[in-house]
Design a protein that fits this description.
- It comes from Cocos nucifera.
- InterPro entries: OBAP-like (IPR010686).
- Pfam families: DUF1264.
- By secondary structure, the protein is an alpha+beta fold.
- It has seven helices and seven strands, in the order ααββββαβααββαα.
- It has helices spanning 15-27, 31-34, 91-95, 109-114, 124-134, 172-182, 186-192; strands at residues 38-46, 49-64, 67-73, 82-89, 106-107, 138-143, 159-162.
- β1 and β2 (49-64) form a beta hairpin.
């Protein structure tokens, strides 16, 4: 889906707020954000409901060659809302995870090779150079804002998200809308990326929810206080 037109509640930004923002933006540095070097557009679905599908714009930075982290927005513009995060790791890092952790991660091979994951505005030859690597990775995605149901604010529990793994899962209307707005052809890119390969050891059977639906739930637990926790002092 494109950026929703649901209004975020609150007063319009005042002139004095804008002036303060301009001043702080000039004085302060933002090294964490300035590391962002890449915009990926893709699609996610809720891990407990594949019928709920959203357009997701990833703004990513590399921690190193094997790990990148992405802020996810519901659109590419200045008014887009921050709806989630995704962590992307190389195959070796994924394989080293505990088995109980692996189902929370999804593979990227289908997304890349089918053409539905792309870098808006980036020439194909440049784009494919990076996607060759991305096709072999795994991602863990959490969304905090359910924009697909029209929420004006981030409500409820965070949602584990997944990515598509085969044809017939992505809603045709959603795909066509994105193709039209960005002037891309998923079919053409599928052909251009046919030479790419996924993880060297194949997609792990525990990835992608282990083939099951997954949903986060909230439960009450005992909350230790500082007084009940033994304190150790080292001199």
């Amino acid at each position: 889906m494109a950026t929703s037109h649901v209004e975020v509640p609150g007063e319009p930004t005042k002139t004095v707020t804008s002036l303060v923002e301009t001043a702080t933006g000039t004085i302060q540095g933002f090294p964490t954000i300035s590391k962002i070097h890449q915009h990926l557009c893709a699609f996610h679905f809720y891990a407990d409901d594949m019928t709920r599908q959203v357009e997701a714009h990833h703004f990513c930075s590399h921690q190193n060659e094997d790990m990148r982290q992405c802020l996810i927005y519901d659109g590419p513009g200045a008014e887009a809302r921050l709806i989630g995060v995704e962590y992307i790791v190389a195959e070796g890092q994924f394989l080293a995870l505990p088995d109980e952790e692996k189902p929370l991660w999804h593979s990227h091979e289908y997304e890349v090779k089918s053409g539905v994951l792309f870098m808006p505005g980036v020439p194909g030859a440049v784009e494919r150079r990076d996607l060759e690597k991305l096709s072999k990775t795994y991602g863990k995605t959490i969304h905090f804002w359910q924009v697909d149901r029209g929420d004006a604010l981030p409500l409820g529990l965070p949602s584990l998200m997944m990515a598509f793994t085969r044809d017939g899962q992505l809603d045709d209307k959603l795909a066509q809308d994105v193709e039209n707005r960005y002037g891309v052809s998923f079919t053409k890119e599928r052909d251009n990326r046919a030479y790419m390969s996924g993880p060297d050891h194949g997609i792990h059977p525990l990835a992608n929810g282990n083939g099951k639906g997954l949903k986060m739930e909230l439960r009450e637990v005992h909350l230790p206080s500082l007084r009940s926790v033994p304190r150790v002092f080292v001199s």
